[in-house]
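Q: Please design a sequence for this.
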């Protein structure tokens, strides 16, 4: 008997429909998540057939437990900021490393794009990266130095920035992300874009952080800092966490952004997210120079007053 025979098709079908209506997953993924949880619930498995014949199985407490856990798993899975597995990312990065040992970075654009697609935040910009940078730099001017706080995979996009020369520092809060970044910049050190990775967990900063960042830029303020799709995420992690963030950041121009649509659920969140950013701008007495609209992202370019 297959797994599907054990759980009445009606339950599976209706559950999958409910999930895909709300979350950014395919019907196949929704089914996999649902079945995973269903099989863990013994009572559900024993009584599923009986309940499926009743009209209102969706009110059955065991069914609700299964759905609740399924949704929670989907939510956390999507919040991993990537669709691909760690193994797939490693393989793709190995491919890029191999290519960079033989060729100039400009000859490996497609591999850069493939890696950018593996992180949900950069994936959403893949179609318009050159324009993204152009519009931001029209306001800030072309920077000589750029700090990208919690860069994700965004550093793979510098090659599409139109900048020929740049001193770049990217931060991330997981050691393996920083190691990967440093490996990448070691392999591209002969290009005009010089980069370094820096371990920075925003939940765990101290007075030295600012000086450490300054040291990475030869003691100078960065021309521009990116806080892309970060403030609302960090505030959700822990309220008030971004309160003193700007004290750590030695930069003239600050570029903040937020998503218009949730990364996990099919819901518009731009009102809530822009609210968080506007509050941040106000509380830090920043001057808003430009607000730029991109597909699924709103960018705020601000200056310290
Ligand atoms: C929505 S992603 C944005 C990534 C990138 N800035 C972009 O827009 O492409 C949020 C980033 O915050 C990072 N992050 C999550 N918790 C963090 C923490 N406590 N400290 C620092 N970074 C964190 C994640 O690793 C992830 O790269």
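A: Design:
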């Amino acid at each position: 008997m297959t797994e599907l025979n054990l759980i009445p098709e009606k339950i599976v079908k209706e559950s999958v429909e409910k999930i895909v209506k709300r979350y950014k997953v395919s019907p196949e993924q929704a089914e996999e998540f649902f079945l995973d949880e269903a099989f863990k619930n013994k009572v559900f498995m024993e009584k599923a057939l009986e309940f499926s014949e009743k009209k209102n199985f969706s009110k059955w407490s065991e069914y609700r437990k299964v759905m609740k856990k399924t949704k929670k798993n989907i939510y956390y899975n999507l919040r991993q900021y990537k669709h691909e597995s760690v193994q797939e990312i490693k393989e793709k990065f190995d491919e890029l490393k191999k290519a960079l040992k033989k060729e100039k970075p400009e000859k490996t654009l497609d591999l850069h794009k493939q890696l950018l697609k593996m992180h949900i935040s950069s994936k959403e910009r893949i179609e318009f990266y050159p324009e993204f940078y152009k519009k931001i730099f029209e306001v800030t001017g072309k920077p000589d130095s750029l700090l990208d706080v919690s860069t994700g995979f965004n550093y793979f996009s510098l090659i599409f920035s139109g900048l020929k020369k740049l001193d770049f520092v990217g931060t991330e809060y997981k050691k393996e992300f920083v190691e990967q970044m440093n490996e990448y910049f070691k392999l591209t050190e002969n290009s005009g874009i010089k980069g370094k990775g820096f371990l920075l967990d925003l939940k765990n900063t101290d007075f030295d952080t600012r000086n450490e960042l300054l040291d990475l830029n030869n003691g100078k303020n960065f021309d521009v800092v990116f806080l892309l799709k970060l403030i609302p995420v960090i505030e959700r992690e822990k309220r008030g966490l971004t309160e003193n963030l700007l004290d750590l950041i030695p930069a003239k121009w600050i570029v903040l952004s937020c998503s218009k649509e949730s990364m996990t659920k099919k819901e518009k969140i731009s009102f809530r997210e822009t609210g968080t950013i506007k509050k941040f701008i106000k509380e830090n007495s920043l001057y808003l120079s430009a607000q730029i609209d991109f597909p699924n992202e709103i960018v705020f370019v601000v200056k310290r007053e």
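Q: Thanks. Anything notable?
A: Residues 81, 121-122, 150-152, 154, 172-173, 200-203, 228-230, 233, 237 surround S-adenosylmethionine (CB under 6 Å). Residues 61-78 form the longest helix (18 residues).
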